[in-house]
Design a protein that fits this description.
This protein is α+β, with helices and mostly antiparallel strands. The protein has one domain. It has 2 helices and 4 strands, in the order H-E-E-E-E-H.
Amino acid sequence: MDCIDHSRNVAQLLQLLEARQWLHYHHLAGAVFRAPLLFNQHYAVGLDAIDTPEHWVIDAWPRDFGAPPLVLPLALWKEGFSP
């Protein structure tokens, strides 16, 4: 699986949580991507905080299956953060 598959799976789960009103402090912002190099695009899922102007990214691709995903500020992730 690539980062697009992982981001879609995470987005589906978050859509389910949001539909059941289980996300109390954030709402789903949809897909986000970065392209630090011409052919090096990477996708993840964005979350926006409800009460603050914070934007977050959930990126499951760099971790093993079943491991907790990376949760980072969007600006840090866009800079090319890699664990």
